[in-house]
Design a protein that fits this description.
Serine Threonine Protein Phosphatase 5, Tetratricopeptide repeat; 2 strands; mainly alpha; single chain; 2 domains
Length: 220
């Protein structure tokens, strides 16, 4: 820290990029170094400058090492909560993919668009149902994530997105969606047809039975 302070105090460019296109702030956010991030911001680091490589801002540079306090500091200094990189990934979507519930909650409280689109993958909730924990899915829905939107790509409905999981949490996510009456059992997508079609292809008998009990038509 003392070397960083010395260089910045004597005029080092706080926003200079390395060969990989990152500024120091990008790297420090990625590695979760709160004190160093604070120093960078004190000397005028641009928290919304886009990385030359993939277009990430400081908030988009979060990783598994990034703590809540780093994100809180960036937000307090005015970092754009809905910034996105070259692939359309927002800080909220990245925190969901990293399974960082506390970070996601902070971003939502700070104005992150919970129903922002993720390209052809649909909304953030589609991605969560496809790859995140029940806790993350529950938190997003409690905070107002829409479960009625269709993905333009292969994920289909939020229920169909969960059907496509291949991990041990698949049944839990499907059960939560059905038990909470959060999905339209009759919803359809161009890729998979009805939710019942998708369940017959990719889910277990209990899920199929629950769909039928909830009124899913069996003759479509």
């Amino acid at each position: 820290l003392s070397i960083m302070k010395l260089l910045l105090k004597h005029g080092a460019d706080v926003n200079v990029r390395g060969d990989d296109g990152d500024t120091a702030l990008h790297k420090l956010c990625r590695t979760g170094q709160l004190d160093s991030v604070r120093i960078q911001l004190k000397y005028g680091a641009d928290h919304d400058i886009h990385e030359a490589g993939d277009g990430s801002t400081a908030l988009n540079s979060i990783s598994r090492k990034t703590g809540v306090e780093v994100i809180r500091l960036l937000l307090q200094r005015g970092a754009s909560v809905n910034s996105f990189d070259d692939e359309g990934v927002t800080p909220l979507l990245k925190s969901i993919r990293l399974e960082k519930v506390s970070l996601a909650q902070l971003l939502i409280r700070s104005g992150a668009d919970i129903n922002s689109r993720c390209g052809q993958d649909g909304l953030i909730i589609h991605t969560a149902c496809y790859e995140s924990s029940v806790d993350m899915v529950h938190m997003l829905i409690e905070q107002g994530a829409s479960t009625r939107h269709l993905s333009d790509g292969s994920l289909g409905t939020v229920f169909q997105a969960a059907c496509q999981r291949t991990d041990s949490m698949k049944s839990d996510v499907l059960a939560y969606l059905l038990e909470s009456d959060l999905v339209d059992v009759a919803a359809e997508s161009d890729r998979w047809g009805s939710n019942l079609n998708a369940a017959c292809l990719m889910a277990d008998k209990d899920t199929i039975r629950t769909l039928i009990e909830r009124g899913a038509k069996t003759n479509v």
